[in-house]
Design brief:
CATH class of the largest domain: Mainly Beta
Strand content: 35-45%
Mean pLDDT: 92
Shape: globular
Oligomer: single chain
Largest sheet: 10 strands, antiparallel
Low-confidence stretches: 1-25
């Protein structure tokens, strides 16, 4: 590997004009990658020269302005079964790493694509490094390219101190989620770690976020589940769902939390979310969920459904608008359903977006193929005279989300995901592409 890097470096230098400044001499090719919102997840097996080395001896760098500088990264340890080794949480939730910190195939290595840099010459490599891997990132849309370097050391230098995301978890159940330019919490529903009752964006003029100066844009997130079984209709909402954090890994590039949810439907039947997670990144949260449904649900049309919603705050989300892939013309949110809002295409959207001066929220609900059907639909209500409990501010101020038809769903395990992007201001229509591309047009990666 080292010989091939040297050969590539010499070949590239031969093509460069003779007179160079020292900084220019250390850079072979400039970064052309312009993607800013992508997280990159690689496996331990992608780094064969690091196998068996301790994760604390690894550092990630990017070439910028002619010199390599450390960038944020994390190495999440996993068991041979593929479960995360939780480093924080209650004592009974901590999972010891069977490899004692040494890198193995199933481990996950995470960094942000925006931290990639130029292609460097070996003269830039840090002193004392014992092994190196070059990671190449390519945008499939534009072929824009960037590079990241991973080095192993016996005596590693300081790592980057930058944190993109972290959580604060209190004894009373309050969980505060921090991103790069957003924060949220469940302070009004402490029994449900997944529920948002606060969502704030950093002010554009504040280089360092000060969320004490920012209003919460939402009233709350909320869910309602209605099932028909045994000739009865049973209904639950966000006040009935008890979700707590088990073990977790607390940043700096992503937070990974064990999501524990279980509640009785009736007669001892329990709905569980087994091996499910809540993850946050600099600009997003994602909830990969495995839901165990214990009963066959009635096939009666319209009697069984699930709503996944977010309601905005009428006092703070002024000037906000709504649009999605089925409704590209944005409608204004003002607490009154006008003709354009009444005529919205209600077919199931791939994504929804609300945006305003403070930022934007993009949501995508990925459902299992077994429940994909034409009767699933967009939920949208901008009428403050109508209530949609459970809520803290009565009425709907651009309440939006998904309504999933559960009629005839059989007992079994169902896998899905719910992704929310928290987009910093300024935001305009069309910006959704750079966030959705994280999933729809992922970067191609090559580790050398």
């Amino acid at each position: 590997m080292r010989r091939s890097l040297v050969a590539a470096t010499l070949a590239a230098i031969a093509l460069v004009p003779f007179v160079l400044t020292p900084s220019e001499a250390d850079t072979i090719k400039a970064k052309t990658l312009t993607r800013t919102e992508d997280w990159v997840i690689l496996k331990g097996k992608d780094f064969p020269r690091f196998k068996g080395r301790n994760k604390d001896k690894i550092r990630f760098y990017a070439q910028k302005n002619g010199a390599l500088e450390p960038i944020p990264y994390q190495i999440d340890k996993k068991t041979i079964e593929g479960n995360y080794c939780w480093t924080e949480g209650d004592a009974d939730k901590i999972v010891a790493d069977p490899a004692n910190g040494n890198i193995v195939d199933q481990d996950e290595i995470v960094f942000m694509a925006k931290d990639a840099g130029d292609l460097a010459s070996e003269s830039s490599f840090p002193a004392g490094q014992k092994a190196v891997h070059l990671i190449q990132l390519v945008d499939p849309r534009t072929n824009g390219t960037g590079w990241v370097y991973a080095f192993a050391f016996d005596d590693p230098p300081a790592r980057s101190t930058r944190k993109y995301t972290w959580i604060d978890k209190k004894e009373d159940g309050t969980v505060t989620w921090h991103g790069e330019r957003w924060m949220s919490d469940n302070a009004k529903s402490t029994w449900n770690a997944c529920r948002m009752t606060t969502l704030k964006f950093a002010r554009p003029e504040d280089e360092t976020p000060d969320f004490s100066k920012s209003p919460s844009i939402i009233d709350c997130s909320k869910v309602t589940l209605r099932l028909k079984k045994w000739f009865k209709c049973l209904q639950w909402d966000s006040t009935d769902f008890y979700v707590k954090i088990g073990g977790y890994i607390n940043g700096p590039v992503r937070v990974v939390c064990q999501s524990i949810m279980e509640f009785d439907i009736a007669l001892g039947f329990k709905l569980r979310a087994k091996d499910s997670y809540i993850m946050t990144y600099a600009n997003a949260s994602t909830m990969p969920t495995n839901c165990e449904n214990p009963i066959d649900i009635s096939e009666t049309p319209g009697e069984s459904w699930y709503k996944l919603l977010m309601d905005l705050n009428s006092k703070t989300a002024k000037g906000w608008k709504f649009y999605n892939d089925k409704n590209p013309t944005a409608v204004t949110i003002d607490g009154k359903m006008d003709d354009a809002e009444k005529k919205l295409d209600k077919s199931w959207p791939d994504w929804n977006c609300v945006f305003g001066p403070e930022g934007a929220i993009i949501q995508r609900f990925t459902i299992p193929k077994e429940v994909v059907r034409n009767s699933n639909e967009l939920y949208y209500n901008d009428d403050m005279s109508q209530e949609e409990p459970p809520e803290f501010e009565p009425g709907n101020w651009g309440c939006f989300g998904y309504k999933l038809d559960l009629s005839g769903v059989k007992a079994g395990l169902y896998t899905g995901d719910y992704v929310i992007w928290y987009c910093a201001a300024p935001y305009k229509q069309g910006d959704e592409t750079k966030y959705l591309d994280v999933v729809d047009k992922p970067l191609t990666t090559k580790v050398k």
